[in-house]
Write a structure and sequence with these properties.
The protein is α/β, with parallel strands linked by helices and 375 residues long. Helix content is 27%, strand content 24%. It has 11 helices and 20 strands. It has helices spanning 21-37, 57-72, 87-90, 94-97, 134-141, 148-157, 271-274, 277-280, 302-306, 339-351, 357-374; strands at residues 2-6, 14-15, 18-19, 42-46, 77-80, 102-104, 115-119, 122-129, 166-172, 174-175, 193-194, 204-208, 214-215, 220-222, 239-245, 251-257, 264-269, 288-293, 313-320, 323-324. The strands form 5 sheets. It has a 6-stranded mixed beta sheet with strand order 6-5-4-1-15-16. Strands 7-8-9-12-14-13 form a 6-stranded mixed beta sheet, with no helix packed on it. A 4-stranded mixed beta sheet has the order 17-18-19-20. A hairpin with a 2-residue loop joins strand 19 (313-320) and strand 20 (323-324). Helix 1 runs parallel beside helix 2 and helix 5 runs parallel beside helix 6 (148-157). Mean pLDDT is 89; it is low at 321-335.
């Protein structure tokens, strides 16, 4: 059986104030085209379907259209909730919808019943485990797990797996060792880590939660997001994961690249260089951009002016002498500096030169006026 593994659509997401909804609608159409091209027989959506627990009406409409298109193709669809989703909202009418072949994980109640598929090699049991925390496992298993690994392990103990058949797990957790990006929710100290060993009884574990596509162990995989949601992903290649599950023990995995309507990338140069037509004429100026200016001084209204050429600039900063002007250092422990010295350091890093005597005199006058006003 050939199935497409997707996750982390984050429908309705905003990045640096920009709505990604139009881009998401576009990429979902591209995904449908890939599903048709590879002749997929099932689709897996491994959580974080929406970006918010209470999605906007427009986001709900986009998902509705996508699921309807999958239902029209007669494909079984397996969808679980992630940490961004509301399990209750996502599972609404799930028993009714399942009659169309779209299976949505219910609100976690401690029980995980498989959906059984069949192909030329026999049965494939698909288990759906939505995002859970230790408290969820404690409520339904009677155990008191102290970690996410213990929580997932306790829940999976309740599944009676026939190891002679092929078994797929769809879940949404952070597996230890996965490479993260800036667009994910990160728990302090990695407290949400799950040891991949807990999935050893499954022939293939389809994961959501991490935004970079990657393999964790032999048959544990994150497919990643279909779009870039942070500049830490600017160099990533987004893709659709296509899995061919053949006889027991035989699995082939390939990826099909996704080309977005607007890429997310970084550009760097002086204001004059970036506004020179020959430097941007052959690029997609509609892309989402992180701009770094190398000018030695601030360019008045640089963002507004640059947006007349590059309308979707998300961030803009300055870089001088190989370092960002925003890279302000913190005084070493025990080091004491006067307010004027601290501001002098700030000014130098911001402008690449120290203040003039006139500027220092003006600054000291302001500081004296402020300090005396507080007495």
């Amino acid at each position: 059986m050939r199935f497409v593994h997707l996750s982390d659509l984050h429908i309705g997401k905003r990045v640096n104030g920009f709505s990604m909804l139009e881009d998401q609608e576009y990429i979902l159409i591209k995904i449908l085209n890939i599903i048709d091209d590879v002749e997929a027989e099932a689709v897996i959506l491994a959580g974080d379907i929406y970006d918010k627990a209470a999605p906007a009406a427009e986001a709900v409409t986009v998902l509705d259209g996508f699921l309807n298109s999958l239902a029209e193709r007669g494909l079984p669809v397996f969808m679980i909730s992630g940490n961004h989703d509301s399990p209750e909202r996502l599972a609404f009418a799930s028993r009714l919808i399942s009659k169309t072949g779209i299976y949505i994980s219910p609100v976690f109640n401690g029980k995980i019943e498989p959906v059984v598929l069949k192909d030329g090699y026999g049965k494939i049991n698909v288990y759906m485990l939505p995002f859970i925390k230790p408290a969820n496992a404690a409520e339904f298993t009677g155990a008191s797990p102290e970690s996410y690994t213990e929580a997932v392990a306790e829940v999976l103990k309740g599944i009676h797996i026939n190891k002679e058949e092929r078994n797929i797990l769809v879940t949404h957790q952070f597996v230890t060792g996965a490479r993260r990006s800036d667009s994910e929710d990160i728990s302090v100290g990695g407290s949400d880590n799950v040891d991949g060993a807990v999935f050893k009884d499954f022939d293939y574990t389809t994961l959501g939660h991490i935004h970079r596509p990657q393999q964790i162990g032999e048959n544990i995989r994150y497919c990643g997001t279909p779009l870039k949601y942070s500049f830490s992903e600017a160099d990533d290649v987004k893709s659709v994961t296509v899995v061919d599950m053949k006889e027991k023990g035989k699995i082939d995995i390939e990826t099909v690249p996704l080309i977005p309507k607007r890429d997310m990338r970084r550009i760097e140069g002086s204001y004059n260089e970036l506004t020179l037509r020959e430097n941007y004429i052959d690029t997609n100026v509609e892309d989402y951009l992180g701009v770094t200016l190398t000018d030695s001084a601030y360019v008045p209204d640089a963002l507004g002016k640059l947006r007349t050429i590059y309308p979707n600039i998300m961030t803009l900063d300055y870089k001088q002498a190989g370092r960002s002007v925003c890279d302000f250092s913190v005084p070493n422990e025990g080091e004491e500096k006067t307010p004027s010295e601290l501001f002098g350091d700030f000014f130098k890093k911001q402008n690449g030169r120290p203040m003039t005597e006139e500027q220092e005199h003006y600054l000291n006058g302001l500081i004296k006026e402020i300090w005396e006003g507080e007495e």
